[in-house]
Amino acid sequence: MRDVSFEDVGEQPLKNIARPVRIYRVRFGKEAASASRSPLWQSHKRPSIAVLPFLNMSGDVEQEYFADGVVEDVITALSRFKSLFVIGRNTSFTFKGRAVDAKQVGRDLGVHYLLEGSIRKSANRLRITSQLIEAATSNDLWAEKFDGEVGEIFELRDKIARTVVASIAPKLEQAEIARAKQKPPTEVADSYDTYLRGMASFYKGANNEARDLFKRAIQLDPDYAAAYAMAAWTLLKELSEEGTLTAEKRIQAVQLADDALGLTTDDAFAMARAGHVLGYIGHQYERGASAIEQAILLNPNLASAWFSRGFAALMCGQGERALESFDTTLTLSPFDSLRKFAWYGKSFSLFHLCRHKEGLDYAQRALQSVKSVHSLSACILNYVGANQIDEAEKHVVVLREHRRDFTVAHALQTFPTGSVAYRDQIASAFERAGLPLR
User: Fold this and answer.
1) What SS3 state is found at 404?
2) What is the pLDDT of residues 147-157, one digit of tens each?
3) Residue 311 and residue 346: Cα distance in Å, rounded?
4) Which CATH number covers residue 58?
5) Which residues does residue 25 pair with via DSSP β-bridges, in sequence order?
6) Of 168, 193, 212, which residue is a domain's last?
7) Which range of residues forms the domain containing residue 134?
8) Which of 152, 157, 211, 338 stands the most exposed, by the fewest C-beta atoms within 10 Å?
9) Beta 55-56 vs 85-86: how paired, if at all?
10) What is the dihedral of CA 10, 16, 18, 19, to 10 degrees?
11) What is the average pLDDT across 272-290?
12) What is the number of H-type helices and E-type strands within the chain?
């Protein structure tokens, strides 16, 4: 008789059945033998998570409904992330009132991560805590606490759900990248792990290596919209950092972004990235902005979509809209790696709105975090706007040391816009600061 193994996938919600049903996976032959050595959480290609019912530690039965509502809001918000496999509410709530062991729950549900929390009431104050746990190791990956007034219960519920979701999404990505990097390259055969390795290379600044990995992920899965979008994004990064891009690479970037949008109508991350590329490299400002708006409608808690909306608004000459978008980015993900880019995005927005003193504040924050063409340019533009020409000229010298070939012509490529007034505002400020025209 052939080898047979059964894997308990846990209780899963099924259509037209009121109660969750326990599901088992059957494996035969070699697959059965290897299954006994492989933890169940490896079966999901995407990172998988279960949000467990929060413990009511207040002794107040009324707060039970609040705690359950927070969990339901978080599950709904996480479900909007195309990159996540999220266990349904009915299954998660089978653990309500039970003492749980992270490793066992991970095995029962077949998930990589668990989110758990508690609620406590003292007088008119509420304190809610939450923790993100890696199921395989029971290690805490993230923890946060929230305080509020009982009278603000609905506003607090919304704030908690939004903050938790925006905070743990980057943590999940980091954990998944770390997991993929632990595999020897010879064992990386699927598109998802290849994509994660591409993300790891991108974050460490190996742009060409990242592009090769994203293209490899596309070869393995021609329908992988996020891989197309990130391959295009590496070309956006090249233009942003170098100030120029060959005609061939521009065509390639726009084609990759087009392909990404053609492959998905529900992946907010891929749509926002692709829309940003279409605006920045393809100068298809309205189309790019429209794709980003659709991404935000799909997932209003996605910080990177709001980030792209900020730059899309700048490219359309909409300073107030850009400022609002960068503020939302920073609210959703205050400690994300996007923060320094959002700072100089705010600085450009404030320059456009002629609020130069505020613009300088954010430009200097960005410059302290990273010395780049963008952070230096943000300082120069706002120094000129504030009529501090000496300081602007000093920063031009530093900018030219950083990029010797940088000119006003390069600046207009690096900061493209469909607004003639905004383009003239940028060019005039750089000229006043002493940057060569060509």
Assistant:
1) coil
2) 887 777 777 77
3) 9
4) 3.40.50.10610
5) 7
6) 168
7) 39-168
8) 152
9) unpaired
10) -10
11) 97
12) 19, 8
